C-alpha cells in the first residue's frame, strides 16, 4: 500500500534542502505543487484513435465532437468525478504537424496519461512517440495504455482477439509488460451505440455495452487514480527538482583534463550497462514465462469447470479432473525448469560479453596507459585499481606487485566473473516447489464426491422424465453443482496466482543475488572516478547527494 503521507513529507524535506543548497547559484527550485487543484488526466496518442469518443463515453457529454477526420484541433478540458480530463490532438498527424507541439505541452502537465491507439496498433512513428514518453521520459508508471476500436478486428472485443493484440503490443512496449502499463481494450463506439439504443432495445443495448469493455476500463482508471493519482503529483514534483539539481551540478563541476580517467569511467559504465541490461532482460523473460504459464493454468481451470458440467459420470469426471491437475503441475514444473535454463544461459551470455570487452583494443590500450602513468593518478583511483576486478584486473595486479605494503596483495573486490556469480546464485532446485498441494487436490475430490451424488440423482430424475423425487429439491442440487464448478475454477486460479507470485519473487531474488551486488559495486567505482575527475566544491557534493536521494525516492514511489 502506498505510504502517501510519508512520501509527501520526504518530498518536501528534499525540496527544503535543495532550496538551501541552491542558494548562491543561478538555479532555483520550481514552486511546489498545488495540492488543491483537480487531478489532470490527459488523453493522447494516435490520430483518429477515438480519444474524444472515449472521453464522451466517460463523461456522458454529448457536446464532444466525434467522428472520422481530425475532430480535436486544440486541447479541450472537461470535468469528470472531480478531475480534469484533457483531450489532445493526435500525435504525428502529417496534415497538422503543429498538433504534436500542442499535445506535448498538455502531456507535460499531465498527472496521469492515457495513451490511445487503435486495434490496428502502432506504426513506426507512433511507436517511437510512445517509447519516448514511456521509457525515455519515464512516464510508464503514470500511464494507462488503451487499444480502442476493437470492432475493427476479425473477432471484435473478445478474449481471444485481445490475446493476439497483447502479444504484438508486448514487442513495442518492451521492457514493460502489458500488465505494467495497465493495458485496456475498448470499443467506445459500441458503448455509445448501446446507450442510444437503451430505450428501444434494452437487450441489444446491454450486449453492446458489455462488448465495449467500458466496465473494465473505468474500473482500471478509478483504481489507477486511487493508487497513483496523488503519487503522480509527487513524482512530477520530484522530476522538476531532479532537473534543476542536475543542471546546477553540470554548471558547477569542471571538465576533467585527464582523458585516461574519463576513459576509465567509460570502461566501468560499459560494464555496468551490460550487467544492468542483462538483469532487465532476464527479469522480463522470466516474468513473461511465469505469466504465460499462469494463463495456461487458468485455461485448464476453465476446462476443468466445463468437465464438471459435461454430464459424464462421477468416475469419468474424477479421471478428467485428475488429468487437469496433472496438466497444471506439469506446466508449472516445466515453467520452473525453463526459468532455471533462462537464468543460467543469460548469466553465461553476459559473462562472455564482458570477457570480449575486457580483451578489446580499447581496454587493452587503456590498461597500458594506466600502467605507465600509475604514479600520476590520484590516491583514491590507485586504490580503486588495486581493488578492481573484471576489466581492470591486470592493472590492479601490477599495482599490488609494486605496492610498498605487501599485505595489500590480498585485497580484491570481486567484479563480475562466472565462477563468483554462479556460486552466488541461490540453489534453484530447492526453490522449485510450486505445485498443486495434496490438500488442494483432496479438496477438489471431496467436492466431486458431494457433486457426484447430485449428478447421480439428477441423472435418475432425467431418466424418469424429470419427476422430482420425494424430499429432493432438484434446484438446490443444481446450485450445489454450480458451486462446485466455481470451486474447481477457483482452485486452479489460485494455483496460477501462486505460480505468478513465485515467478516475480524468483526473478528478483536470483537476479539481485547474481548481478545486483556487482552493479552497486560498479556504481561506487564510477562515483569515485567522477569525484576525482571533477573538482567538486561543497555545494556540488551536497547537490549530488540530493540528486541521488531524489532519484531513489522516485524509484521507491514507483515500486510502491
Plain-language structure description:
The protein is mainly α and 560 residues long. It is 66% helix and 6% strand. The protein has 18 helices and six strands. The protein has helices at residues 4-21, 51-59, 98-108, 124-136, 159-173, 188-196, 202-212, 214-252, 259-308, 314-358, 361-372, 379-386, 393-401, 418-424, 428-431, 438-463, 474-533, 538-559, and strands at residues 40-45, 76-80, 83-87, 112-118, 143-148, 184-185. It has a six-stranded mixed β-sheet, sandwiched between helices. Helix 10 (314-358) packs antiparallel against helix 16 (438-463) and helix 16 (438-463) runs antiparallel to helix 17 (474-533). The longest helix has 60 residues, at 474-533. The relative contact order is 0.10. Mean pLDDT is 75; it is low at 398-414, 424-430 and 452-472.
> What's the β-strand tally?
6
Reported for the largest beta sheet, the result is:
6 strands, mixed
Number of helices: 18
The backbone outline, from C-alpha atoms, is: globular
Strand content: 5-15%
Measured distance between first and last alpha carbons: 7 Å
Q: Kindly provide the radius of gyration, computed on alpha-carbon positions and rounded to a whole number of angstroms.
A: 30 Å
Report the uncertain regions: 398-414, 424-430, 452-472
Average per-residue pLDDT, rounded, comes to: 75
Order of helices and strands: HEHEEHEHEHEHHHHHHHHHHHHH
Which strand order do you get reading across the main beta sheet?
2-3-1-4-5-6
Helix content: 55-70%
Tell me briefly what this model is.
This protein is mainly alpha-helical and 560 residues long. It has 18 helices and six strands.
Amino acid at each position: 500500500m502506498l505510504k502517501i503521507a510519508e512520501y509527501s513529507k520526504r518530498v518536501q524535506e528534499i525540496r527544503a534542502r535543495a532550496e538551501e543548497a541552491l542558494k548562491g547559484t543561478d538555479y532555483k527550485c520550481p514552486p511546489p505543487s498545488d495540492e488543491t487543484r483537480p487531478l489532470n488526466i490527459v488523453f493522447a496518442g494516435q490520430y483518429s484513435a477515438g480519444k474524444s469518443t472515449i472521453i464522451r463515453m466517460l463523461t456522458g457529454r454529448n457536446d464532444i465532437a466525434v467522428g472520422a477526420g481530425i475532430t480535436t484541433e486544440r486541447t479541450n478540458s472537461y470535468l469528470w468525478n472531480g478531475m480534469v480530463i484533457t483531450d489532445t490532438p493526435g500525435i504525428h498527424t502529417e496534415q497538422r504537424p503543429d498538433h504534436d507541439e500542442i499535445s506535448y505541452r498538455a502531456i507535460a502537465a499531465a498527472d496521469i496519461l492515457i495513451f490511445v491507439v487503435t486495434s490496428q496498433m502502432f506504426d513506426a512513428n507512433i511507436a517511437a512517440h510512445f517509447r519516448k514518453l514511456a521509457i525515455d521520459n519515464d512516464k510508464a508508471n503514470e500511464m494507462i495504455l488503451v487499444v480502442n476500436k476493437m470492432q475493427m478486428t476479425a473477432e471484435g472485443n473478445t478474449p481471444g482477439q485481445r490475446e493476439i493484440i497483447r502479444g504484438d503490443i508486448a514487442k513495442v512496449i518492451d521492457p514493460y509488460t502489458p500488465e505494467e502499463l495497465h493495458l485496456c481494450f475498448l470499443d467506445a463506439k459500441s458503448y455509445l451505440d448501446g446507450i442510444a439504443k437503451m430505450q428501444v432495445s434494452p437487450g441489444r443495448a446491454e450486449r453492446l455495452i458489455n462488448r465495449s469493455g467500458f466496465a473494465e476500463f473505468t474500473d482500471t482508471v478509478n483504481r489507477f487514480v486511487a493508487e497513483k493519482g496523488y503519487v503522480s503529483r509527487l513524482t512530477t514534483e520530484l522530476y522538476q527538482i531532479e532537473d534543476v539539481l542536475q543542471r546546477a551540478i553540470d554548471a558547477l563541476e569542471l571538465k576533467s583534463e585527464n582523458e585516461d580517467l574519463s576513459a576509465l569511467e567509460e570502461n566501468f559504465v560499459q560494464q555496468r550497462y551490460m550487467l544492468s541490461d542483462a538483469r532487465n532482460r532476464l527479469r522480463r523473460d522470466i516474468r513473461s514465462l511465469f505469466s504465460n504459464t499462469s494463463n495456461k493454468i487458468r485455461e485448464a481451470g476453465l476446462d476443468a469447470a466445463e468437465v464438471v458440467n459435461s454430464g459424464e459420470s462421477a468416475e469419468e469426471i474424477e479421471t478428467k479432473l485428475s488429468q487437469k491437475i496433472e496438466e497444471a503441475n506439469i506446466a508449472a514444473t516445466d515453467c520452473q525448469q525453463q526459468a532455471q535454463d533462462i537464468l543460467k544461459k543469460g548469466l553465461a551470455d553476459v559473462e562472455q560479453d564482458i570477457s570480449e570487452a575486457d580483451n578489446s583494443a580499447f581496454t587493452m590500450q587503456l590498461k597500458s596507459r594506466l600502467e605507465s602513468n600509475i604514479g600520476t593518478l590520484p590516491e583514491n583511483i590507485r586504490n580503486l585499481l588495486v581493488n578492481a576486478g573484471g576489466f581492470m584486473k591486470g592493472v590492479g595486479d601490477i599495482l599490488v606487485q609494486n605496492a610498498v605494503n605487501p599485505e595489500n596483495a590480498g585485497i580484491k573486490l570481486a567484479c563480475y566473473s562466472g565462477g563468483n556469480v554462479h556460486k552466488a546464485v541461490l540453489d534453484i532446485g530447492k526453490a522449485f516447489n510450486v505445485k498443486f498441494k495434496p490438500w488442494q487436490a483432496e479438496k477438489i475430490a471431496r467436492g466431486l464426491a458431494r457433486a457426484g451424488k447430485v449428478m447421480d440423482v439428477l441423472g435418475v430424475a432425467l431418466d424418469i422424465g424429470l419427476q422430482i423425487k420425494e424430499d429432493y429439491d432438484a434446484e438446490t442440487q443444481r446450485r450445489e453443482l454450480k458451486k462446485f464448478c466455481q470451486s474447481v475454477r477457483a482452485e486452479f486460479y489460485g494455483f496460477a496466482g501462486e505460480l505468478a507470485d513465485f515467478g516475480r519473487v524468483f526473478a528478483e531474488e536470483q537476479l539481485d543475488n547474481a548481478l545486483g551486488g556487482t552493479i552497486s559495486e560498479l556504481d561506487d567505482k564510477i562515483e569515485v572516478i567522477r569525484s576525482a575527475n571533477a573538482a567538486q566544491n561543497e555545494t556540488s557534493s551536497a547537490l549530488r547527494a540530493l540528486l541521488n536521494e531524489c532519484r531513489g525516492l522516485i524509484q521507491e514511489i514507483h515500486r510502491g
